[in-house]
Amino acid sequence: MAAAICCFHWTCLIGTLQAADLTAKDLKALYLFNFAKFTKWGGTQKDKTAGPITIGILGTIQFNDRLALIDGKRFGKKSVLVKTFHSLDQARRECQILFIGDTPLGLSDILDTLRGSSILTVSEQKNFARRGGMVELYLEGNIQGKQRLVFDVNLSTLKEEDLSLNSRVLKLANKRIR
Amino acid sequence: MPNPLIQCVAFLCCSGRYQNLVSRKIVLLALLFVAFCTEMQAQEDDIIASDSLPLEEAPEEETFFDPNSLSFEDLMAVEVTSASKKVQSVARAATAIHVITNEEIRRSGATSIAEVLRLAPGFFVARADSRNHAVAGRGLANLTTNKLLVLIDGRSVYSPTFSGVFWDVQDIMLEDVARIEVIRGPGATLWGANAVNGVVNVITKPAIDTQGTLISGGGGTVERGFFSARYGFPLGDQINARLYGKYTDHDSLEATMAGPHTDGFYRWLGGGRIDWDYSEFGSVTLQGDVYRNRQSQFWQQPITAPPLFEDLTSDGTMSGGNVLSRWQHTLSDESELSVQMYFDRAVRDQSIYRQSLNTYDLEAQHRFAWGERQEIIWGTGARVFSDSWTRTSSLTSIQNPERQHELFNIFVQDEITLIEDRLSFMAGTKLEHNDFTGYEIQPSVRLLWTPSDEQSFWLSASRAMRTPGRAEADAIVNQRIVGGIPAGPFFPGIPPTLIQIVGSSDFDAEELIAYEAGLRSKFGESIALDLSVFYNSYQDLRTVEAIGTADVSNAPAYAVQQFSFFNNRQGDIYGAELALTFDLTDWWRLRPSYSLSVPNTEASAANVSTSTSDNAYPVHQVGLYSLMDLPGDLHLDLYGRWIDEVEILTVQTVIDPFNLPGITRFPSYFSLDARLAWNPFGNRNVELAIVGQNLLDDAHPEYAWEVFTPQLTEVPRSAYVKLTVSF
Q1: Residue among B62, B683, B684 with most chain A CBs within 10 A, to mutate
Q2: Chain B residue closest in CA terms to A148
Q3: Which has the closest alpha carbon to B297: B335, B326, B330, B265?
Q4: Rounded to the nearest 5 degrees, what angle is found at the Cα of B194, between the Cα atoms of B188 and B199?
Q5: Residue B255 has what pLDDT?
Q6: Structure pTM?
Q7: Helices B4-19 & B24-44, crossing angle to 10 degrees?
Q8: Contacting B residues, span 517-556, partner chain A, CB-CB under 8 Å
C-alpha cells in the first residue's frame, strides 16, 4: 500500500486510471512481452539476443490463444517470437525466456537442465521462485474478489544466471527472494 | 533464407488486408499456403522446427494490438475478475489529486499544457491572450498565479523572479506525456514553498515507451500551423533514447482595443531523453530541451507629455533550455534512493526589460521502510538562482541588476500503517531557507482510511508558505501617470502623478493553514466519485499600499506617489470539488465535475490599493467531458463547461488617483470544445482529427493583464485539423 501512495515526488506511482478490457490470460501474455522488453541477458545468451527474443512455451498453458497479442510484435528495434516446445533440450538451445506450463517433467529436473543457460524462467507453479525458478506469476486477490496479476522474482537465481531485470520491473515485483 | 514464394504470398496477404482488394477467403488460403510452405521449408531444414508447433492464426484485432501501448505499471494496475472487466482503480492518496492521462490529453484537443489543465476538476484556467494563462486551484488566481507550483519531470518551472509560471514558454511534446498529476491544495511538505493552492506534475514517458517514429501536423484558424516529430530508438542494451522537435505558429486572439495590436507568436522547441536501465546500479535518465519563442507584444509605458503614455509594440523573444539528470537506485527491497540535478536557463528579451535567469538544482531523496509499519521518506535539496537584467525601461527597472539567491531545504515524512491496507497516518515537515524571508517550516498531517478497496476517506491539515519573489523585493514599476488638474485662479492645481510601485525587502511570506477532507468511492463497475472539501485560512496576504505622500519636487511637471508591498490581508476561502466518472457503456464515458470556491478575505490596513482581487477566481465551475468511441473507428469527444464570472483589477482601475476600488468584470460563460477523430486503419498509427474550440460564441473574454498593458483580448471560436502518423 505504501508504494501506491505518492512517494517519490518526481515519479509518483499513483493508481493509474487507464481503461482497457483485459483478462488474466491477456495479462499473462503481456507480462511475458514486458519481461522480454526489460531483461538484460548475460552469460551464454549475451550474443544470441542480437536477433529476435524467443519466448518459449513448455507444456500446456491456459493462455495459448492469447499469445497472438505479442507474437511477432516489436519494441524498439527488437521483436518477440513465441514458440511452443515439447523438447526441453530444444528449448534450451533456442529461447531466451521459457514459460513452464503443465508438463510431465519434474520442476527440479527442468531447472537442473536449464542451469547455466541464462534463460529467464517464468511459471505459474506454486513456489516456483522459491524452488529456483526466476519469475513466478500468480493472481493475488482481495476480499472483494478482485484480483491482480502479480509476480515474485528470485534475485539470487537471476544473478547466478547473469540476468538482470530492469529496476523499474524489480520495483513492481510483489516479493523479491534472495 | 527467404523463400521468394513466401515473400510473394505474404505481400499479397498484406496488400489484401490493407486495400480490401483480395477477399478474406483468398487471404486465408494464402495464409494456409504460407503455413504449408513454412512447413515444407522446416522439413528441409530438419532440425529447426521438428518439435515446435505453429501458433494458431491470430484474429485481426490481435494482429493490430500494440503491446507497447500499455506500460508494465498500467498492466499491474489491472484488476481482473474471472471475466473481462473495466479497469478503474481508486487512487489511494490522502490528498485531492486528479490524474490526466495521455489518452485524455490527446482526446481533449488542447494544444498547450495550460489548456490541458482545463480538464482538471477544481482548477481554473483562463486565457489573457494567445500565450498567457491564469491557472490556479481553489482561489486567488492571477496571470502569474503565485500559489501554484508546476513541475515538468521534476524540474520546477515556477519563476522565482515574478512568483508564478510563465505559461508562454511552457511547451512540451504532448504525445510523449505519460500523465499530468494535478494536486489541489497545499503540497509544501514534499514540494516546498509556493505549493500553496496546488501542484501540477507533468511526467513524460520513459524513452522505452516512445520507441519509433511519430509525426503530427496540422493547422486552422487560430492554430495557424503546427508540426511535431519524435523518433525513439535503442542506443544499446537497456539504453533507449528519443529526440523530438515541435513548431507552432499561433495567431492573435481578438483584440478589443483599436489599432494594430497583435499578440500572436511562433515557437519552436526540441529536445530528447536517454534512459539507461541497470538493475545493479539503478537507472539513469538524462534529458533536456531548448526553445525559442517570438511573440508580438503590446505594452504601455508612462511619459510626462500628453497623453501621458506611449505604446511599445516591438516583438519579444523568449528563449531557454534545460538539462536534467536523475539517478534512481533500489538499495534493497525496502529502500530506494534518488538523486536529481538540473540546470535551467530562461531569457525573457522584450522592450520593457531583458532578464536572463540561470537555475542550478540538486536534490536527493531516500525512501525506506522502518520496521514493519513505517515508511519514511526524507530528502534534501539546494537551488541557486542567478539573474541578470541587461535592459530596463521607463515602465520597469530593478535594484541590483545582478543578484544570486539561494534556496535550501530538508524534509521528512513518515507514513505509519495503523491497520494493514485499511488505516494509515502520515506526518511530515519541510524546513526551507530562502534569502528573502529566512526559514520557513511547512508541516502536514494526513489520515487515510480505506474501509474497502472501493472506498477511501482522508483528512489533512497542513501549512504552506508563498515566499516573495525577486521582483517583489527589488523591482520598480512605473505603472502609469494619472492626469492632474491645471491650476485655476482660486485653485493651486494638482500635477500629473506617477504611480510607482517599488519592491520591499520587508515584504514577508504569505501563509496558508489548510484543512481538507476527501472521499473516493466506486459504485459498481462503472461509477466512481471523488469529493473533496477544504477550508483555507490565509494570513499575511499581499497588499499594495501607498508609502507617505506624493513627492512633489518635480511639480508642476509631475509628482510621484510611491506604493509598495505589505502583508495586510487575511481571511479564508472554503469550497469543494466533485468529480464523477460514468462508464456508461464500452463506448461512452462521461466525466461531470463541479467546483466551488467561496472567498472571504479582507485588508486590515486603511490605505490599501489591493493588488489581488478576491474575486479573480470563479465561485462556481461546472464541466462535462464526454468520450465516445463510435462505429467505423470514429471517436467523438466533447468538453462543455460553465465558468462563473470573475473580477480583476486591471491597469485602468489600479491607477485610480483616489484609490477607489475599480474592477473589470468578466461575465460568466458557457463554452464547448469538440473533437472528432478517425483512425482509417482501425489502429492509432494513423489518426485524422478535426477540433473545434469555444464553439458557442464568436468570442468571449476570460482574463486580462493586471499590469503593463490595457489590452483586453477575447478568445474566439476556432477550429483546426490534425494528422498524426506513427510507425
Answers
A1: B62
A2: B79
A3: B265
A4: 65
A5: 82
A6: 0.76
A7: 160
A8: none
